[in-house]
Amino acid sequence: MGLEDHYRGLFAQAGAALESLTAESDQLAEFTSVHNIANELETLVRAVNNRPELVVYEHALQEFQFSLYAAAGGSYRHAHISLRLCFELFSAGVLFSAHEIKLRNWLSGAENSDVNWGQITHPETGIFSTFFVRSFNSELSSSAKQYQVVALKVYRECSEFVHGNVQTHGSIGRPIEYNADLLRGWADRVKAARICIIFAFAGRYLALLENTRRNQIESIMTENLGHLPAVRAAYS
To answer: pTM of the entire structure?
Structure first.
């Protein structure tokens, strides 16, 4: 098989996976709801587009688009890989926002400046720690631990696809193929990562945003975190 035919075959498999997805109304509705999360994430980023860590969030948004693209075409492993990186970058941006030296080192590609999930989720100083959230929004700090649990779980589950654990493989011999179960699992993990990102943004920025910027994200905050008194108070 020639080079062009080889890659046209792969694109054909991805196209067939998309056709199978669009033929199932329930799965298509689920995928559409996840696709629309991109708009939410972009709205969050626009609200902090005057911040030096903006570039990190822009890279995270790009990875989310890759995750959507891969999932639509039946490449679920790569959908999870990009989802994990998206989540990691959003979380790193929040951490960098409080440590500009770390941000500057990361942007310059300095040695030992890699994004570190252990630092991001450190129980005492990470972005879901009581200490970190209390530093920017004391009223939200008591809720931080529950989102830490979710964040660790979704990252671990995405990592299973990175490391190739046996349950992450589809059928042998056809790596690009529609699989409703794998698609559904990916969608669930996107939603779990999303709620953690929204909480991390609330904990870091909500109390400090000027009114115009805070109002830009009102519907996102109230629809997802409206059960928290601090969020309700911010928009009362």
So the answer is: 0.94
